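Hey, weird one. I pasted the PIN-like protein sequence into the form twice and got a warning about non-standard characters only the second time. First submission, copied straight from the form history:
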Amino acid sequence: MITFSDLYSVLSAMVPLYAAMLLAYGSVRWWKIFTPVQCAGINRFVAVFAVPLLSFHFISTNNPYKMDVSFILADTISKLAILMVLASWAKFAHTGSLDWMITIFALATLPNTLVMGIPLLTAMYGSFYGGLMVQLVVLQCIIWYTLMLFLFE
């Protein structure tokens, strides 16, 4: 049974994130506070400074010697299986292409765990599972994003 304290912990993790997104959307669409040029500047700041620094924070606090090997192995095997299925589709199907293979792989296996997933998972299941997501983010940044860049080239 879901208790009030469980609901409160999940909502206290989700409401600030979604409230910020709703206010940002409203400030551009409805209230016209930001111009498209200012939005481009904010997007550049987020892409160049905020997300890399947040990623660095999570990567630097992770201890690679205490990573859960079976969890990482399960995640890696599932991503490789999806990659092999998509590569077969891109090679043998007449509608398949490398561009769509990369896009579908990214959508299916590389979630937005850094900003939304870790706070929500920590609120729902505790800090242990938030730590597991941090391990996935570390591998995402080191291995899977590098593979994506290689495939794009």
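That's the output from the first submission. The warning seems to come from a hidden character in my clipboard, not from the data itself. Helices lie at 4-29, 36-61, 69-92, 98-109, 113-125, 127-152.
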